[in-house]
Amino acid sequence: MDIFRTASALRAQARAWHRAGLSIGLVPTMGYLHDGHLSLARIARARADRVVVSIFVNPTQFGPGEDLDRYPRDEAGDLEALAREGVDAAFLPSVREMYPEGAETFVQLERLPEHLCGMSRPVHFRGVATVCTKLFAASAADVAVFGEKDYQQLLVIRRMARDLLLPVEIVGGPIVREADGLAMSSRNAYLSPEDRRRALAVPRALDAAEALLRAGETDAAVLRAAMAGEIAKVGAALDYAAIVDPDSLDDVLRVEGPARAAIAALFGPTRLIDNRLLHAS
Ligand code: AMP
């Protein structure tokens, strides 16, 4: 596996691949890799001839007081996992490489960030859209794979790539879960054993919404209240419990077609998110 630390070195490799007629699949990550990340590398492998995984803890997507300084890192372990997975190249740029001295250009969406996570993390999606634009430019990716775990992020990137006419196809991958149902996340490493147990309220909240819908309840307010109830039961702080249109992310009043149940809750300082597609039967 090749390891690149500068955009120009990665770009030279990407050009060589393209000249040889090979397509490129990119999986952007912040590292501390788990099976969720690796599942995306497998999707990229199925869709492209060469797979690049980037590891970059992007400072511009963290707000003041968030966990940028303590975000978990394990470069050696990550590189081993990627090599085992048969990834062709890892891209590990420095902050200065991604944000050259005096950088002042950002990519900002107008509407999609004004929902869900964007409401409590006002600079987050601007940072995500900006760094992904740079990663797409550096890797010349034909396909980029993002997890549905960060469903709003997937929509933001898909919209941005379309709006900016970027020559990259955005593909979503299903959420990979621990055996007990908790969605895998690098941030799960922060949880104390006690909070790890309480965190199961997050997937339980999605179960509750799904069960009500299956029983014929289509009033989104009732589903939201049930989701919030699961979080309250374990004494965690709810950020949002939402039932939204899967394209616009606007709240729905009634679940009459496909809808997305989405939730964010705080377990001590650790913010966990999860979501699930709901279908009215
Ligand atoms: P992160 O390193 O947390 O920024 O995540 C990098 C990519 O992996 C994003 O596209 C995430 O949506 C995706 N991802 C994170 N956790 C999971 C998971 N449990 N299942 C599937 N994809 C995931």
Structure description:
By secondary structure, this protein is of the alpha/beta class. The protein is built from 10 helices and 9 strands. The chain has helices at residues 7-19, 35-47, 75-84, 95-98, 116-120, 124-139, 151-163, 193-198, 201-214, 220-233, and strands at 2-4, 24-29, 50-55, 89-91, 143-147, 169-173, 237-244, 258-267, 270-279. A 6-stranded parallel sheet has the order 1-4-3-2-5-6, sandwiched between helices. Strand 3 (50-55), helix 3 (75-84) and strand 4 form a beta-alpha-beta unit. Helix 6 (124-139) crosses helix 7 and helix 9 runs antiparallel to helix 10. It is globular. The termini are far apart. The mean pLDDT is 98. Adenosine monophosphate (AMP) binds at residues 29-30, 36-37, 39-40, 146-147, 149-150, 173, 175-176, 183-186.
What's the arrangement of secondary structure elements?
Blueprint: E1 2-4, H1 7-19, E2 24-29, H2 35-47, E3 50-55, H3 75-84, E4 89-91, H4 95-98, H5 116-120, H6 124-139, E5 143-147, H7 151-163, E6 169-173, H8 193-198, H9 201-214, H10 220-233, E7 237-244, E8 258-267, E9 270-279
Parallel strand pairs: 1-4, 2-3, 2-5, 3-4, 5-6
Antiparallel strand pairs: 7-8, 8-9
Helix pairs in contact: 1-6, 6-7, 9-10
The structure holds adenosine monophosphate.
Residues 29-30, 36-37, 39-40, 146-147, 149-150, 173, 175-176, 183-186 line the site of adenosine monophosphate.
